Amino acid sequence: MKSTELFLLHGWGAGRAAWAPVVERLAATHPEQRVTPLDLPGYGNTEATADFTQAAQTLANRLPPGAVLCAWSLGAQLALRAARIAPEKLAGLILVGATPAFVQTTGWPDAQPPALLEGFTAAVAADPATALQRFVALFNQGDAQARTIGRQLARTLKDAPLPDAASLLSGLAWLRDVDLRAEVASVRTPTLLIHGERDPLMPLGAARWLAQTLPQARLETFADAAHAPFLHDPDRFTALVGDFCHASA
Q1: Choosing from 143, 170, 195, 199, which is the catalytic residue?
Q2: Is residue 159 among the annotated active site residues?
Q3: Which residue in 30, 73, 167, 195 is the catalytic one?
Q4: Which of 11, 42, 124, 201 is the most exposed place for a label (fewest CB within 10 A)?
């Protein structure tokens, strides 16, 4: 059976190991699907950069033509910019817990107050490991499986090497400064949006806005899930991803 290549891009602070349940289930249920986890700049062996557009261009350069890119949280913002820069590279986008703009501003209430990001920036500068633990607790609030997911991500953070503080701070600066609303309508790549109905970090309203504004998008919501729906219900998540990849082939 023909299949596209699927690439997974994680979110801020989590690392590629967060995708392990997805990779395992896709291998079991869609063995023909080639899956490659990628790193954000400054994570793993990926070169760090403070320039958002440069990071998106580097991401696009790593993809073969006709790929499907599944990206979570901050990674989803990079994926949207990459799709605008190099649309020929992408057969499809899967955006998980996505938003075009993380910080509240005039006319954009479905976002976080600037003070929250300022607090995390100060916490990362003081103690990155503790700040990441707080971040995981924050984005799991409201999830019906918050304790299980929190323990799982805590093990991931413990076992994986942390990016340096400079890379973490660059990611927070992107969340503070990047606003993709003006360019979203020009991204014509077929897109699957997957979002937790209880996401406390990227409110569901942001995903609904993306679903209405992206020319070729549909939204799948996960009841009782927060910011990590792929960990809340990995079986449903991998089924959606597998079906979307086959439809994009």
Answers
A1: 199
A2: no
A3: 73
A4: 42
